């Protein structure tokens, strides 16, 4: 027969194990990697709805947003900071609504950025782009929000092929990445934006389907993002689910396991 003391000791050991596990998980999430699931198509075709990844939090150092629920309020600015590079895919905290966004870093402090007829200009120079075929996907609801893709060949019926023009864009530092074009939209021609000191300018790779720094915060955009709002760099997709949930393993995309993010 198990004594009361043994039951008490067993219960205490279980409690300690749970507490230690939570502490380790908290430290891991705060200092090393934060899980992130792609909820929208703003970064296609670099990132797809349903991609699951870990954000490298020590890439840029730490700020109050490095802790879960932004609890690191004791951090002023950034600790152990490292400057991000143009072309990095970055998770950051929206300056106004507090949600986490993932976009590509396009503009550094002091840069002048403009879109003209869908072409990106940095500091007055046209950024090189080369045609790279098309990005094709099935017209069907995607992810838990059941979002339907936008198409250059629309309207497209359910089950049809949704097509977007695809280009390779090469930034001045030599970083090349894929961008998509649906058609001329309101963000394809913009004024010249000058990035303030201590801020960054972000854009989605799916240029005509992205809420980003081309729209200011008052207009429900992103605007310029302060350096302390950076959470970390996205380096690699761990796995990807094409269905409504990550747990629907039968919808996992076999070709995206540990896919490098470029």
TrEMBL record:
Its EC number is 3.4.21.89. Keywords: Hydrolase, Membrane, Protease, Transmembrane, Transmembrane helix. PROSITE patterns: SPASE_I_2 (PS00760), SPASE_I_3 (PS00761). The chain crosses the membrane at residues 18-38. It is found in: Membrane. Coiled coil: none annotated. SUPFAM superfamilies: LexA/Signal peptidase (SSF51306). GO terms for molecular function: signal peptidase activity. It is an enzyme of class 3 (hydrolase). Gene3D superfamilies: Umud Fragment, subunit A. It catalyses: Cleavage of hydrophobic, N-terminal signal or leader sequences from secreted and periplasmic proteins. The keyword Transferase does not apply. InterPro entries: LexA/Signal_pep-like_sf, Pept_S26A_signal_pept_1, Pept_S26A_signal_pept_1_CS, Pept_S26A_signal_pept_1_Lys-AS, Peptidase_S26. It is a single-pass type II membrane protein. Residues 12-237 form the Peptidase S26 domain. Belongs to the peptidase S26 family. This is Signal peptidase I.
């Amino acid at each position: 027969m198990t004594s009361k003391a043994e039951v008490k000791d067993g219960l205490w050991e279980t409690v300690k194990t749970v507490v230690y596990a939570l502490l380790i998980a908290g430290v891991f999430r705060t200092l090393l990697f934060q899980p992130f699931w792609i909820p929208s198509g703003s970064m296609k075709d670099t990132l797809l709805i349903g991609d699951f990844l870990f954000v490298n939090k020590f890439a840029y150092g730490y700020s109050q947003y490095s802790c879960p629920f932004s609890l690191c309020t004791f951090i002023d600015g950034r600790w152990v900071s490292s400057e991000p590079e143009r072309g990095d895919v970055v998770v950051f905290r929206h300056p106004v609504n507090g949600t986490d966004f993932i976009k590509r870093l396009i503009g550094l402090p002091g840069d002048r950025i403009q879109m003209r007829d869908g072409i990106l200009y940095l500091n007055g120079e046209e950024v090189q782009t080369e045609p790279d075929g098309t990005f094709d996907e099935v017209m069907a609801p995607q992810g838990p929000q059941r979002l339907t893709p936008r198409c250059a060949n629309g309207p497209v019926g359910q089950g049809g092929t949704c097509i977007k023009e695809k280009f390779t864009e090469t930034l001045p530092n030599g970083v090349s990445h894929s961008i998509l074009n649906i058609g001329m939209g309101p963000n394809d021609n913009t004024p010249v934006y000058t990035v303030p000191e201590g801020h960054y300018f972000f854009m989605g790779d799916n240029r005509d389907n992205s809420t980003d720094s081309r729209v200011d915060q008052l207009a429900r955009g992103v605007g310029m993002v302060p350096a302390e709002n950076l959470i970390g760099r996205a380096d690699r997709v761990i796995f990807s689910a094409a269905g409504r949930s990550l747990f629907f393993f039968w919808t996992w995309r076999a070709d995206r396991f540990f896919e490098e993010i470029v």
